Amino acid sequence: MRILLTGGCGFIGSAVIRHLVRTTDHSVLNVDCMTYAASEETVEDASSSGRYAFARTNIVDSSEMSCLFEAFRPHAVMHLAAESHVDRSIDGPGVFIQTNVVGTYSLLEAARKYWLSLDKADRAAFRFHHISTDEVFGALGPHDPPFTETTPYDPRSPYSASKASSDHLVRAWYHTYGLPTFVTNTTNNYGIWHFPEKLIPLITINAIEGKDLPVYGDGANVRDWLFVEDHAEALVKAVEKGVPGETYAIGARQPRSNLEVVRTICKVLDELAPDAHGPRERLIRFVTDRPGHDFRYEIDPSHAEQALGWKARHDFETGIRRTVQWYLDNRSWWEGIRARRYTGNRMGTAAE
Questions:
Q1: Percent of the chain at pLDDT above 90?
Q2: 267 falls within a domain
Q3: Verdict on whether the full-model pTM lies above 0.90
Q4: Helix axis angle, 199-209 to 258-272, nearest 10°
């Protein structure tokens, strides 16, 4: 297949590109406008492949999107481009509405125009795969069953509201226009190349440097953690097998409280790179909780596992060890972000 993939220089998008180039015969056009969280280094391994191409442009630009569809002639779209940082959405929701809502609308319309130009067989085979989050479902209590594909939407932050809006648009274009779309919702991802403002890389980097490890509230908030390479494998299986109109909830069955996550990182790092000043748990600091902080997210991935023939390969302890080791081995990447390219003020917060 020829796959037009948006947001391919981001954390999850780049993992998908690396997986596509390494394990399939598909070709991919990476469409990315290169915001603060994007890095071309994440796709360096793929860039030497004749099956990889890059277009630096914004999905909000509908005319440019139409040109890319006509030139590349994709068999499928994988739409990952999004603003995704909850704290940033609280401080400045406008860019989230523009990228996540208006950008998705622009891409849907370009895809629909292109799809209508195809012959009957190609039109039937075309797929528009929209990648979303479990945050659109709201928050779970301590004893609530995990989210599934039929959980009602109840977004609580500007970020999750913007993603919920984009999910609704994607489904509306299926029901109204017949565009063969489907949606995947996933839980928190972690792994290599994760931008340093997110919880796991932030804690890992601070712990490496002996800095405070900030944890919101009492650290009891729970997330189901999915290793990004496992997610990439699931997304590729979805674009190959996904049924129009369907939803697939992708998770790892690995729930951990934020405090458990931080303590696990400390333990692994103490083993891999002991600190002369003692165990790194001494650096944990509890900070004021953020507004509207959802208590728990967790996904039941049973339907996706069965329909896609996929299951997460990594448990949390295995995945976090690989992740921590990668940050130890790749200081130049994250040090470069802080020294040269990072222009926000989020480094040092306790964000997920």
A1: 92
A2: no
A3: yes
A4: 40
